[in-house]
## 1
Amino acid sequence: MNNLINDLYQEIILDHGREPRNFGECEPHNKSADGHNPLCGDNLKLTFLLNDQNIIEDIKFTGEGCAISLASASLMTEKLKGKKIEVAQEIFKDFTNLVSGSDEDLKVLNEEDSLYALKGVGRFPMRVKCATMAWHAFNQALKD
Amino acid sequence: MDDSKTLNLNVRKDFPILSKKILEKKDLIYFDTAASAQKPNTVIDETNDFYKNHYSNVSRGVHTLSVESTFRYEDARKKVQKFLNARSENEIIFTKSATEGINLVAQTFYEKFMQKGDEVILSLIEHHSNLIPWFFLRDKYGVVLKFANIQPSGEIDIDHFNSLFTNKTKIVSLTHLSNVFGTELNEKAISICKDKNVPILLDGCQSAAHLKIDVQKLGCDFFVFSGHKTYGPAGIGVLYGTENLLSEMPPYQGGGGMIGDVSLEGASYAELPAKYEAGTPPLVEAHGLGIAIDYMNKIGLDNIIEHENEITKYAFNKLNEIDFIEIHGGDNKRNSIISFNIKNVHSHEVSSFLDVEGIAIRAGHHCCQPLMKHLGVNSTARLSFGVYNSLEEVDKFVIALHKCKEFFNK
C-alpha cells in the first residue's frame, strides 16, 4: 500500500473514524455550534460546558461525515477536555497550521500528540475542510 | 469492444492532460467528466490563437481585429445552432454558464408571464442550479413551487408529475439527464407540457455532450448547457429559447451591446440575440465552445455516445457484481453516469484513496442535497465518462475499489 494513503489514514484516524469518542450531546452545556461543509454535506453539532474558571469541563459532538472529519472531531474533544480556554485556542491555531501544511512553528502541539496523526491531510488540500470542520465549530462557539 | 478500443486509442492523444502523472506518478484515469470535461488540443490551441492573433471586442468596432473577433463569436453561435438544431441563430443566447441561463429564464419569464401565486413544477432530482433560481421567485414574489417525485429507478414519477398541474402552472423546469443517476428524462414529461400548453425548460448540462440534442424534436421551449461540460472552456454557457418567448420576455441585464438606441430619457433594446447579451461576452470562450463542437462532430456524436454507452454498461455490470457496492438508482439505461457507495465507507475516503491511484471521481452531494436526503445518504461517489475513457480504465478502477474496501475495513 502506498505511503500517501497510509499517512492520510493512520490507524488512530481509522479507529476514531469508526468509533468516535465523546459522541453525543453534552448535558448540561453552555456553548454550542454547528459545523457544516456545504461542499460535501458533512455536518456536526458541538456542545461543551465551560466552567467559571474558563475550563472546558466536558465536550461532545454528534454528526455525520467522513473518517477524517469524525476522527478530527473525536480527537479534538479528547484533547480539549479539561483545558483552559486560552490553551484550547492555542491548540486550535496549531492544529489549523498543522493540517493546512503551513510551516509555521507549532507552539503547543508536537509529534507525540495524537492530533499529529492528521498532518497527512496537508497533502490533500480538498480534505483540509474535513479536518477543520469541528475546530471551526469550536471557534465559532467561543465567539457566540 | 474492439471498436471502442480503437476509438479510444485515437482520441486519448488529443487530450494533453491525460498524460499527466498524479501524486505518486500514477497514470491519470479521469472519471469526472460530469463535473467538467477535459479539453482537446484543438480547443486549447484555438483559444490561444484567438488571443494571439485575432483578439478585440465584438460587435463594437470597424477595425480588422474587431471584425475577426466578431466573426469568430458569431460563427460559434452558428455552430451551436446546428448542434442543437435550433431554427435560428436568434434562438441561441450566450451566457457565462448554464446556471446563468436558468436564472435569466426564471427572472425574465416571471416578469412577463407570472404573478404571485402562480406555480412552477420542478423535480426532486434537480441540481441546485435548477432549484435556487426558482427559490428566488418563491421568496421574492410568492411563486409556488411543486416538486415531482422520483421512482426507485431514479426517473421522474410521470403520474405524480402529471398530477401537479393546475391552471396556475406557468412553467416547468427539469433536468434532461440526471447528474446523479445518469437517467434520461422520460419524453412523456415533455409531451404532457405540450398538451397542457405549459413551456418547459430542459437543463441539458449532462445531456449536451452525451445525447444527440434536437430541440425541435424534443419540443422544449428552453434548453441550457455549459461549454465546460462539452469539452469547451469554462465561462461560456448557452441558452436556447424559442424566438416567440425570447422576443416577448424582457431583457435580463442592462448594459452595452443589448441596446437599440439610448437617450437620457430611456432606451430601446437590441433584437435577438443581442438583447440578452449585455456587456462584453465571453467571446474567446464562445469560440472555444464552437471548436469543441467541431471536435465532437469530427469524431461523430453517434460514435461518442455508442462508446460511452458501452463503457457505462460495462462499468455498471462490473459494479453490480460486487457485493460491497451499492449503486443508486435502478438497472435501467444510464448515460455516462453511475453513482454508488462502498458500504460503510464514506465517499470522501473512496475518492481520496482512488486519487492516490490516479483515478479522479466525484464525491459529495453533487449539488443535489434534496435528492441525497431522499436517498438517505449524505454523499455518494460518482463515476462519469467521456470520449477519452476506456474499458481498461474501468478494470483498473474495479481493482482499486477492492483495495479501497480492504483498506478501510481491515
Note: The radius of gyration of chain A is 14 Å.
## 2
Amino acid sequence: MKRITAIMLVLAMAVSLLAGCGKKESDDGVIRVWVGEESAEFYQKIGDEYVAAHSDFGYKIEVKGMDTGSIAGTITNDPTAAADIYTVAHDNIGKLASTQCAKPIMDETLIAQVKADNPASFQKVIYSTLNDKSYLYGVPYISQALFMYYNKELVTEEQAKTFEGLQEAAKAAGTKAITVTGDDGYNMSFALLATNANDHSTTVKIFEGAESVSGGAKGESNCQGDDTVAIFRWLQAFAEDPNGFKWASPDGWDADLDKDNKGVLAVIGGAWHYNTAKAALGETNLGITLIPTFTLTDASVEGLSGVKAGDVYRGGTFADCKCFMINANSATTKYAKEQELILYLSSKEVQDASYLECLNVPAYVGAADYIKQCFEEGKVTESQYNLAAAQVSMAEWGIPQPFITGTLNTYYYSKNAPAVFRAVIDQTAYPTTGDVILQETTSLDGVRKALYLIEYLWMHGVTPKEFPAALPEKA
Amino acid sequence: MASNKNHAPKKNQEKTGLFEGLRKKCENFGKRFADGSLGTKLSHFIFGAGSFYHGQYVKGALFLLIQLGILAVMIFCPSINGTPYGWKALRNLPLNNVTEGGDFDPLTGQFTVGSDCKLMVLFGFVTIALIIIYFMVWNMNIQSSYQTDMDLKIGKKPNTFREDMRSLLDGKFHVLMLTPTCIAAAVFTILPTIFMIALAFTTYNSQDMNDLGTNLFHWNGLQNFRAVFTGEGSLGVEIKNRFMPVLGWTFLWAIFATLTCYFGGIILALLINKKGLKGKKVFRTIFIFTIAVPQFISLLAVRNLLGEYGPVNSLLQDWGITKEPIGFLGLHPSDSESLAKFMVILINMWVGIPYTMLMTSGILMNIPTDLYEAARVDGSSTMKMFFKITLPYVIFITTPYLISSFVGNINSFNTIFLLTGGGPTYTGYQAGGTDLLVTWLYKVTIDQGSYNTGAVIGIFTFLITATITLITYRRSKAYNEEDTFQ
C-alpha cells in the first residue's frame, strides 16, 4: 500500500511540475490573431481566404475572439502567452510599446497605406517613441465614438437634438432626461470635450504636444478655460433639475433606460452598448443620434468673459480607433509576414466587408460615403445605419484619447481626476470626507478651483499642496 | 491561576532548550569535522564525497548533482524574460541598476528587453531560497557521511541506496509523505507571501510605474506604512483618511455578523429540536435549502430585490409609502451608510444562520440527557437548564468555530462585495461606507493597480486576524481544557 501511495505521489508531483512548464512562442508555422469576439469568425474566414490565395505566404492563420476591453491587460500580464497580432484601442499603444509588449511596424508599404488611408487625428496617436525614435505601432481598422441612444416612444427626433428638448420630454414623462454608462473619465468626455456648435472650438487641452513620460515633456493641458467652467456650471444646473441629468443606476444604465422602468429617456454610449440598449428599449423604440447640443444660460456664464449666454455647445466625445499591433514576443521569423497580413486585414476592402458582416465602423477617410451607400442599397437596417452614421459624425466633433509612451492618459483616468468631475456635478466638497481639499464646488471660484485641481492631477499625478492665490488665466 | 504557573516554567524550558540545541549543534559541527573520516572531511567541500568514500555511489552522485546544479545557477545565472537568477539576481535585488531597454533592430524586429523589477525581486528571493537549500543539503551530506562513519565504528554495514529508498517506504514513510507538502507550501505559500510582504516596501504601483514608462519600481522603506499617518504617496490620502473608518467597521461587522448568526442559529436549532414539534425534518430541510443555493446567487437575488428598480422599491412607491426609491444597500453615494450597514448585517443572517443551526442541532442531540435529568431532579427551571447546561455545552464545543467564524467575517468578501460593492462611496476614495479591509484591498489592487498599498493593507489584516485568533483561542476553555467539559 505504501509503495502504491509513494508511486502515486511521485506521479502527482511530476504531473504538477510539468503542468507548470510553459513554452515560449516559437515559429510553429501559425500566425495567431486576437480580435473582438464579434469579429472572430469574419477575420478567420478572411484570413483563410488570404492564405488560400497566397501560396507563398507560408503560415496558417488562427483567429480568436477576445474581450477587446481587457486584451491590453491580458497582454501586459503575460505577453509570451498572447497572440502574434492583437487588436486594442489606440490609447493602449503607449503602455504596450513602453512595456515591450508591442513591436514597431517597419514595412514601408504598410506605413504608406496607413498614411494614405487614415485621418490626421488618428495618425497622431498611433505612433510611440522608443529610445527617442518615433515608430508606427498601431494600424487603425475600426473607428469608434460616443453618441446617444434614446427612447423614440417618449422623445421626438427634434427633442433629441438638444439637452433642453430632452428635458422637456422628461418633464412630460416624469423621468430624468439622460444618463451616462459610467462616471469614469471616458464617459465624462461628453461634458469635458463639449465644443462650440458653430466652430467646433474648445479651450480644453489634454497632454497636447507631449513627448514621453520617461523624462520627456508632458505637453500642455488646460481644463479651466471660461468655456469649460461655463459648461460645468450649466451641467450642475441640469443635474440639479428633477428632469435633467442622472448618474447611472447601480442596477445598470440599461435598467434606467428600460422602457418599463422609464428611469431616463436617453443614454450616452458607444456601439458596444447597442445590444443592451436594444434589449432595454426594443428595436422599434431605439433611437440613435448625435450627442445633443445645449445652450449656455445667464447663470452659467455669470462672471465669465470668454463666453456669453446663448452660446451653443455640442456634447463631446473621444473619437478613437482600434488598431492591429504586433506582439513583441512573437517569433522574429514571422515579423515580415505579420506585417503583410496586417496590410491586408486593414485594407479598405476588408474594413468595408467587416462593416457589412460585423457592423465595425471603418476607420479610413471617406468611410461615411460607403456606410450611406450600404444603407441606400438596403444592405443594412436603419438602426444599423444610424449606429455607424452617428459614430462617423461624432468623430468629427471629438478628439482621439491622448496618450504617449507610458500611457500618460493613466493620469487622465486615474489619480482621482474623474472623481473631482463627479464632485463638481454633484456640487459636493472634494473629497466628501476626511481631509477636504475643496470645501465647495458650487460657486464660480469653487468650480474653477476644481477644474484647476483636475488639470494639476493630469500634469502631476498628485494634488497640489495649496491653491495659488490667483489661478492661472486660461480663457 | 495554577495553570498559568505551570505554563511559565514550560516556556523557560523551551527557551533553554532552543539555546542548548543551538550550542549542541555547533559543538557537533566541530566534532563531525574532527572525528569524521576523510570522506566526511571532504564532504565539507565536495557534496557526496563522504558517500563516495563509503561506496554509496548513487547517494553521493545525487548530493554532487545538487551542489553542481545550484553552483551552476549561481555562477552562470540563467535568465527568464531577460531577468537572471544566481549572483546577478542578488546584485539586482537592491533594484539600483535598472534599465528601460528598447534598442530596436528594424531588420529582425528584435529589441533589448528592459528590466522587470517584479521578476528581479522574485528571482532574488528564489536565489536566496536556493542558497538556504544549498546549506541544508550541505549539512545533510556531512551528516549522512558522519552517520555512516559511526555505523561502521559499531560494525554496522552502510546502507545501500536501495535500502535508503526502502526505508522511505517503511521507517521514514512520514518523511516521504511530508516532503512534497513542505515543498508545495514553500513554493505556493511561503514564497508568494514573502514576495507580497516585500512589495509593501516598494513603489510597485501601476500608476506610479507609468511615470517611469516600464516595469520599474524601487524600494521605498517604510513609506507605505507611514502613509497611514502622513498621507504620503500615490494612495496616501486614501490610506490616511479611510484606514481607521474601514478598520472600525470591519470589527463592528465581524462582531455583529458573527454573534447574530451564532445566536440566531442556536435559537433556531433549539426551536426545531423542541420536544413535541412536528415536522422537524421538514423545517431542517427548508433551512438547508438556503445552504444548497450558492451564496452568491442568494446575495445577488437580494441585491436585485432591494435595487433602485427592484420589486421592494416598486411596491413601496406603488403603495404610496415612498416617493423616491430607498437606497437600502448604499449603492448611490447619497444613500444612507447606516441603513446599508444595518441591511448587510440583516441579510447576512439569512445566509449565515442555517450553518450554525445545522451544527448546533447536532451538538444539542449529543448533550448527555442525564445532565438534564439530574437538573430536573434538583428542581431546575427550563431557563436555568438552558443557561447552565445547554449554552455552556454549545459554547464549549463551538468556540473554535466561533473564532474561525469571526476571522472569516473579517475577510467576508462575498457578502459585502456582492450586496453593496462597498457603497455608499465617498467621492475621491476607493473605500466606501461598507467596505471591509478585504474588499478595499481588492479595489486598491485590482481597480487601482496599487500593489504596494494592497500589500500594506494585507499585512495589517493578517496581523489583526492572527492576533485575535491567537489571543482568543489560547484563552478559551476549548483550548485550555480540551478534553473535559465540566
Note: Chain A touches chain B through 58 residues (CB under 8 Å).
## 3
Amino acid sequence: MLYQRLGRPALSKTLYLVGQANVAEEIVQESFVRLWQKKPVFPTLRQAYAWIYRSCTNAAIDYLRNKSNQSVEFEIDSLASTVGLDLEQRTALKQTWQAVLRSLDEDEAELFIYRAVEGLNQDEVAEVMAISRRTVNRMQDKVAKKIGKIKERGHGG
Amino acid sequence: MADKVVSRRTSLYGDHLRILDLAASDAPLTESQRAESQRLDNLDLPRLVLPPRKKNLPQWLDGIMAPRGMVATVAVVCSLLILVIRLQTPQDQLTPKGSVRVAVFWDRGGKVSPFTAESQLQDGDRIGASVTAAEESVAYWVVSDAQFNIISDPNDIHASRLNLAPGVPQEFAASFTLVAPNQGEHLIVIVCPKGDNKTLESGDRVGTVFDQSFVSKLIAKGQLEASNCMYAGYNLRGMPK
C-alpha cells in the first residue's frame, strides 16, 4: 500500500517542518486521505511521492503561518540544526521566517521552504511543484527580491 | 568532513528518493541518507484512518433509505418527472420502453434531497441516482453538457454499469460532484434489458456525444439491443444567462 511505502518519509519530512509529532501525523494523514479521495493517476511511484511531499509541505506552511512568532522561531531553530543549515542561514531564517511566510504567496512560500529550508535543487523543486525549471528560476528571483525588502525593512526598523 | 559537505548538498527530498529506491543511482547512501534511513525505520507510523466513502451513493442514501424516510422518499420519487432527452438529430430517436423508475438525489453539506424540477443545484453539490426496472436489465449513467457532449470520464461510464434484478431498486455505486464552470449538465441514465453478460471493456471508446451511436457502442459488447433501451435525462442546472 502507498501509505506503508511513503508514509514514513512523508511523516519525517513534515516533522522536520512543524516540529510536533501529533501535528505532523495529522498533516500526513490528511494528505493521504486527500490522495485517496482524489485518486490521481501516477505513472511512477516517484511522482506519487512528489505529490505527497508537496501536499505535506503546503499543509505545514499553512500550519506555520498560523502559529505565533515565538513558537515558530523555536521550531525553526530546531529544524535548522536538524537539517544541517549553517549558523548564518539559521540566523537569517530566524530573523525573517515569519515575515517571509506572510509576505510570499502560496507558491513562493512553498519554493522558499524547498530551497532555503530543505535544500532541494532547482530540478527537484520543478519536479515536486510540477513546473518548469525556468519557472522555478523566475519564482526564485522574485522570492529573493521580496526577502531582500523584508531584510531592509528589518534593518531599517 | 568532506562527507559532511557532500551530505549537506543533498536535499531531504533527494535523500528520500534514494532511500525509497526511486532515484537512479548505484552510489552507496551518503552519511545523511543513512541517518535519515535509520530515522525512518524508527518512526512510528500511525494507522491510516480513511473517512467513510462519501462518494458512494449507498452510504449517503442511508438516511433517506431509513424506514421512516422511506415512505416520504418513495412518494417523492414516484412524483419525479422523468424527462426524455431530445437527441440532436431526427435519426437519433430512441424510444423509452418498459417500466423503469429513476430517482435522482443531490447532497449539499450532508443534506440529501430528491432532485425535482425546482432543485437549484450549484457547484459542490453531489449527485446520485437509483434505478428500478421491471425486468432484468443493465444500467449506465452518463453526464453531458448542455449540448450533450459527454463530460464523464469514459472509465467512469464503464464502471457505472449496474445489474438490475426485476423490481429491485439499485443505486449507482458512485456519485459525482458538480464543479465550475456551469455547463448546463445533464444526467442521463440508460437502462437496457439484459442480454448476454459480456461487459464493455474499459479501454473501449464509446464516443464523445450522447447520440444513437454512443448508446450502441456503450451496450454493444453486452449484446443488448439499443432499440430496447430506455433512457432518462435530467437537466441538473441551466446555463447562466
Note: The CA atoms of residues 55 and 104 of chain A lie 18 Å apart.
